[in-house]
Amino acid sequence: MNHATSRMLTRVKAVYLYIREKGTVSTQEIAEEFGTTDRTVQRDLNILTYNGLVKSPVRGKWKTTAKPVNIS
């Protein structure tokens, strides 16, 4: 795995944990917390959504799903 992929996976995991800890957060809050652009956050959220780990019941607000997750 190359360095960029590893960094991206680490960030995606951190974004998931941040959402799980905070409850419901906006895309902007995530971008500010991680010092990234909204576009980068959206890519990360797309990965998490595709895997059924987060959802956005209200546009731009994110929360985790009930899907069980084994975090290592």
TrEMBL record:
Residue span(s) of domain HTH deoR-type: 8-63
Keyword Transcription in annotation: yes
Keywords of the record: Transcription, Transcription regulation
This protein's name: DeoR family transcriptional regulator
Lineage: Bacteria, Bacillati, Bacillota, Bacilli, Bacillales
SMART domains hit by this protein: HTH_DEOR
Biological source species: Lentibacillus salicampi
InterPro entries: DeoR_HTH, WH-like_DNA-bd_sf, WH_DNA-bd_sf
Molecular-function GO term, any one: DNA-binding transcription factor activity
Record flagged with keyword Transcription regulation: yes
Entry-linked PROSITE patterns: HTH_DEOR_2
